[in-house]
Amino acid sequence: MTTFLLNHVLINTSVHPGTTLLDFIRYGQDLPGTKIGCREGDCGACTVLEGRMENGKLHYRSIVSCLTPLGNAHGKHIVTVEGINMETCSPVQQTMIDHNGTQCGFCTPGFIMSLTGHTMAYEPSEEKIAIDSVNGNICRCTGYKSIERAAISISKMLKDKNPEDPLNWLIQHQFLPSYFVEIPEKLSKISKQPPPDIAIQQIIGGGTDLMVQKPDDIAERSLGLFFDRSDLKGIYRQNDHIVIGAAATANDIMHSDIMNDLIPNLKKHYKLISSDPIRNMGTLAGNIVNASPIADLSIYFLALGANLLLYKDGKEREVPLKDFFLDYKKLDLKKGEYIKSVIFPAG
Fold it and tell me: Which fold has domain 2-188?
């Protein structure tokens, strides 16, 4: 059973956890504001917000629902464009109107959700950051300048936002509906998802690769949902090495103080990797086991001389990353084994 909050509604569903969140939203819950575009995470028409509790605070980030397995929504708050609608337009919606940021309107809900996600950050808003927040959204009509002007205008509106308590400030200023204040308490009542009671046929992390390659298989197989496993998260120093959990995302790495101290230009380089929604979802281990030359993260850790810590049935095995790749799409990975962490020298 997958349990989560969809806008202001508590969802308990036995729909297969490999179903795309996009299809569940549109066809299962009749919320058509989330659009079907490329189904490959490129266009951003299906962008929604994912809220989850982290260190006692509710954090939201943009994700593409077309590549999100429904099971990954468990215990979270999923927000579609319908979930931010009020009696009048929010400042984000109104600013897009005022700056003529929409023409055909197909992409507009995705832009609105990305920009709304930007308003919800704990960090201060800057014009460049506001513009960067829509780097996962494509518009075929406007030429982007009107949307860019809207993003800059929104950033200026946020200059007085309380960075310690952005949600209440946003509710008071009509950026968000009032029900958002109840979300932390409601999420606290959702129990952790139990492991599958049958043999796992497929491990899946963020879904950004597998949901493109074989969505039909994912929608039918018994899944091991690894994205939210706490034992596979974290970036920390261990003696003279750095350890990164297998389920750490590209954005976790990009914003890690440890990683930025080690590689001063890391953020600049990581902005060349996909878009914010994909970096919010794609995991380090998933990128590695992709076993393709187009996998963006592997090259960093090959250069750093990294090893992989592999795990199976209570036993660990350490393998140099350079020896893990046997050939195109071929790995030194035994049946039932999975990557637990990536380890490399700190200096």
Answer: Ubiquitin-like (UB roll) (3.10.20)
- Letter string b/e over residues 176-212, b meaning 16 or more CB atoms within 10 A of that residue's CB: bbeebeebeeebeebeebeeeeeebeebbbbbbbbbe
Beta partners for residue 254, in sequence order: none
| Amino acid at site 130 | A
Give me the residue spans of the domains in the chain. 2-188, 229-345
3-state class of 241 per DSSP? strand
DSSP string, 18-74: TSBHHHIIIIIS--TTS----SSSSS-TTEEEEEEEETTEEEEEEEEGGG-BGGGGT
- From the list 79, 71, 93, 64, the residue with the least C-alpha distance to 13 is 71
127-177 pLDDT, tens per residue? 999 999 999 999 988 889 999 999 999 999 999 998 889 999 999 999 999
CB 61 within 8 A of CB 68: no
- Tokens at residue 308, please? 């992989």
pTM of the full structure? 0.95
Q: How far is C-alpha 59 from the geometric centre of its chain's CA atoms?
A: 11
CATH class entry, domain 229-345 = alpha beta
Q: What are φ and ψ of residue 6, in 5° steps? A: -110, 105
What is the spatial distance between Cα 118 and Cα 277, in angstroms, rounded to a whole number?
A: 12
pLDDT reading at 197 higher than 80: no
Q: Which tokens go with 94? A: 């109104």
Q: Name the pairing type of β-strands 9-13 and 2-6.
A: antiparallel
Show the DSSP H helices in the chain as ranges: 21-23, 91-98, 108-119, 127-132, 145-157, 166-172, 183-188, 210-213, 215-218, 250-254, 257-262, 266-270, 276-281, 284-289, 298-303, 321-324
